[in-house]
Amino acid sequence: MPTVAQHIVDTLSASGVRRVYGIPGDSLNGFTDALRTTDGVAWIHTRHEEGAAFAASAEAALTGELAVCAGSCGPGNLHLINGVYDAMRSRVPMLVLAAHIPTEEIGTGYFQETHPQDLYRESSVYTEYVSHSGQLPRLLRIAMREALTQRGPAVLVIPGDVLLAQTDAAPEAVLPTCSTVLPAPSELAAAAMALNDSAKITILAGAGTQGAHDEVVALAERLQAPVVHALRGKEFVEYENPYDVGMTGLLGFASGYHALLGAETVVMLGTDFPYAQFFPQDATVIQVDVRGGQIGRRVHVDHPLVGTVKETVEALLPELKGNRSSKHLDTMRKHYQRTRKELAELEKSDRKRIHPQHLTRLLDQGAADDAVFVPDVGSPVMWAARHLTMNGKRRLIGSFTHGSMANALPQAVGAQAAFPDRQVLALAGDGGLSMLLGELLTVTQNGLPVKTVVYNNSSLNFVELEMKAAGFVNYATDLENPNFAAVAEAVGVRGFRVERPKDLAGAVEEFLAHDGPAVLDVVVERQELTLPPSVKFEQAKGFALFAIRTVLSGRGTELIDLAKANMRQLL
After folding, report:
1. What is the number of other CB atoms lying within 10 angstroms of the CB of residue 18?
2. Which among 57, 121, 196, 257 could disulfide-bond with 533, CB atoms 3.0 to 4.6 Å apart, if both were Cys?
3. pLDDT confidence of 465, banded at 50, 70, 90?
4. Which residues contact 432 (CB under 8 A, 6 or more apart)?
5. pLDDT over 70 (residue 278)
6. Pair type for strands 153-159 and 201-205
7. β-bridge partners, 265
């Protein structure tokens, strides 16, 4: 009879899983040996289990299908947790195989003993301990279905001796299913009445609008409503949308901020946008979300509509009046055009310093039409949100809800493994890259042509911005970086390094054209300010305190450098 481990591999294969990410260990030996002897399911050996979980989450985000990662007992599966938590917050389907110590030793304080079922409970949609081989086949099917239907990680905690036990169960395919959810007709009618009675309507679109681009545009046309997107909605609604007015929130810009704040009625489509301060105070709010528990978390909602965005908008459209005034839309579109013009000015080259906005624009212009962009949390996310162009084929994924540092490179590994012929760009911060620098070895070992761009400002740059806004003198944010291009060359990856603005355009072109993995290490301006869409009194006060404290601490030259770096924004 086959082992439990072989049954898992056969079930994964029958279910369309083609890769498992992880690091081998003695408690996983039965599982990795089953992979060794089975065609069709590859072991993607990473250098850190956190990288394995990030890679699996990226594959799941891009494919919408189940991805798998595995960790050995104790520290091995503990290392997975941050990447698993990210998958949970990003709502992507993942199966996590967390190996455990021998069954008879559980509870004795044995070597590497932990209690994974307790540790994973908060970071998963389903967690169960498999104590006997007879449990496994059914629990495996349950875990896979939970991951697919709830869109999150499902964890099976399995002792190594259980993996080696025999089972006579036959493998069974567990495949994704599709469904639609619609609000009741009375709820749709009430929402339509509110929209028909409102003159200034703004749509806020999030990740739940995936697959509903045309319906969102049709709704905007019928309502003459500007469309503001949250970060995770950018790739789904920004392109071919004459009603788009940009992004709001901490990473957004002024046009999106004003379009939302100036509305009498806000229609939230598939978004759990977390920042209540960016919503208008007295507006009527209509929220559409397939998860009813998401509705009303941030602001008071007058018309909750539990449903999938595409089908709910389709059902709502026939109830809405046309021939509306376009005054609100026209005003916000003009605001957006001004904002885009200002952003374009920031994207221009500079003879003295390399601005990260210019680097991002060059990448945007040179990247493939179906490129996958994966920015690190921190300043790379800001530049991606503001200066990358989506077209319906490109993808933009990242740790946008969990907000974990060091996500870019390991997620790029998963994206490239799933799509070996597609251009994948990791937009890495220098701090993020150095945190999981070993994943460059994962790239070479697995022959993945990942392109990694390093925004090298020798600092934890976003943390510095937060310190400035809060009035603190920058402290403990300096990074003593190596030449990342030389590091890349040392591990078998082509390295490019740019320190002068005049060399940037040519290096970006050569980097993107390189046939294989490459690292582009760009020394960018450290003092670049990123202004929020609206500067609050507290932020202005904090910045003034920062300036005073910086001078008093004897570091006044930093203020001069700050002013020189940002003259384009201050003029």
Report:
1. 17
2. 257
3. confident
4. 376, 377, 378, 380, 405, 406, 407, 408, 409
5. yes
6. unpaired
7. 201, 284
Nearest residue to 359 (alpha-carbon basis) of 455, 235, 478, 484: 455
94-143 pLDDT tens trace: 999 999 999 999 999 999 999 999 999 999 999 999 999 999 999 999 99
Q: Which helix (H) or strand (E) holds 20?
A: strand 19-22
3-state DSSP call for residue 380?
A: helix
pLDDT at 396 over 80: yes
Cβ neighbours of residue 295 closer than 8 Å, sequence gap 6 or more: 287, 289, 301, 304, 306
**Is residue 290 within 8 Å of 310, Cβ to Cβ?**
no
Which among 124, 93, 98, 91 is positioned nearest to 113, based on CA atoms?
A: 98
The CA–CA distances, whole Å, from 216 to 51, 385, 465 equal 35, 20, 35
Question: In terms of Cα–Cα distance, which of 206, 85, 97 is closest to 152?
Answer: 85
User: What is d(CA 109, CA 328) in angstroms, rounded to the nearest whole number?
Assistant: 66
Distance CA 548, CA 563 (A): 15
Q: What kind and span of H or E run contains 154?
A: strand 153-159
**DSSP 8-state class, residue 155:** E
Tokens 């294989």: give the residue. 516
Span of 230-244, 343-357, 385-399, 420-434 with lowest mean pLDDT? 343-357
Q: Are 180 and 311 within 8 A, CB to CB?
A: yes
CA separation, residue 397 to residues 58, 235, 259 (Å)? 7, 9, 25
pLDDT at residue 310 is higher than 80: yes
Q: How many percent of the chain have pLDDT more than 70?
A: 93
Model confidence pLDDT, tens digit, residues 65-81: 999 999 999 999 999 99
Distance CA 378, CA 435 (A): 14
Mean of the pLDDT values across residues 83-102?
Answer: 98
Place of tokens 């839309």: 329
Q: Which residues are catalytic?
A: 49, 111-112, 377, 462
DSSP assignment of 110-151 equals: -TT---HHHHTGGG-SEEEE--STTTHHHHHHHHHHHHHHHT
Q: In angstroms, what CA-CA distances link 297 with 134, 190, 191, 245, 263? A: 42, 21, 19, 24, 20
Do residues 125 and 149 touch, judged by C-beta distance below 8 A?
no
